[in-house]
Amino acid sequence: MLEFAYPGLFLLLPLPWLLRRWLPAYRESRPAVRAPFLVRLERAMGERAGEGAPLARRRRLQWLLLLCIWSLLVVALARPQWLGDPISRDLPMRDMLVAVDLSGSMETQDFVDEAGQMTDRLSAAKEVLDEFLSRREGDRVGLILFGSAAFIQAPFTDDLSVVRELLGEAQVRMLGPRTVIGDAIGLSIPLFERSEVDERVVIVLTDGNDTGSLVPPDRAAKIAADNGVVVHTVAMGDPQAAGEQALDEATLKTVAATTGGQYFRAEDRDGLESVYAALDQLNPRKVERESYRPRDELFHWPLGAAIILNLGLFGVSGLLLGRRARPGEAA
């Protein structure tokens, strides 16, 4: 569909006619030369001099070219544009960050995989998380891995295949044997500061307790709550274990409650799948649809045509002047 960005400029079309109609013609006064022998010159040439100077008059073709040039210039100034078919796209309305524990206890083999074979906790978690992420089309998702230190593996992106691939490459102890839950939550906050959406969610998956964070988990949770970040905690460890491998359910519950999130515990693969199914219900996919129509600028076409016609006008004018310069040829 054709439209003009500035249709009001078409009011300029009659401007040349108005100027010619209401403004006086250009006149230039020059000193005259008296010729006392003009009468004898008339007799010799057999012609009689008229009054006033001869005026060069434009031909119809010249007027037509001038009219076309002016019209094309006005059309170019009005900026013709071609509107394409409407294009719709989904804009994410939620930023979701997944934080996964890679401490040494995640290699404990007390879960089963899809084939029913015994596997370690991290492998089971990656399988369930991969399926969970496959249903998050429309969300921007980021990935944090933590062990003895927390590391941003993937900033927020709507390319979920990249996040799933990076998650699949994660290995136990690749960031050390310890667990820094508080630092992982704290690391997520600067990421959300650059977020432009209202819903900000962190899902922390761990099987132990905090054993070395610079920022305690409860303190990190308060900072997250002040920044509008909701933290859901998912525990998959053994609360009966001792030492650093013991599951600190109290801290995980406190973190979730402080930020307005929920605490979940999974004792096996089925329990882990039910946890992420519940998270799907708590955080359904939400998108905002944006529709726009692409615009292609077309002003260069009338502008180019005006330039070509202008060159043609100069050619016609030169041809007519050449004919006037050789009046004898016409005779």
Task: Please characterize this protein's 3D structure.
The chain has eleven helices and 13 strands. The protein has 331 residues and is an alpha/beta fold. The protein folds into two domains: 2-23 and 58-85 and 294-330; 89-289, von Willebrand factor, type A domain (Rossmann fold, 3-Layer(aba) Sandwich), CATH 3.40.50.410. The strands form four sheets. Strands 8-7-4-9-10-11 form a six-stranded mixed β-sheet, sandwiched between helices. Strands 1-2-13 form a three-stranded antiparallel β-sheet. Strands 3-12 form a two-stranded antiparallel sheet. A hairpin with a 5-residue loop joins strand 5 (111-112) and strand 6 (118-119). Helix 3 (60-77) runs antiparallel to helix 10, helix 4 runs antiparallel to helix 5 and helix 4 runs parallel beside helix 9.
Keywords:
single chain, 331 residues, alpha/beta, Rossmann fold, 2 domains, 6-stranded mixed beta sheet, 3-stranded antiparallel beta sheet
- Report the CATH topology name of the largest domain: Rossmann fold
Structural class: alpha/beta
Give the biggest beta sheet: 6 strands, mixed
Percentage of residues in strands: 15-25%
In spatial order, strands of the major sheet run 8-7-4-9-10-11
What is the N-to-C order of secondary-structure elements (H for helix, E for strand)? EHHHEEEEEHEEHHEHEHEHEEHH
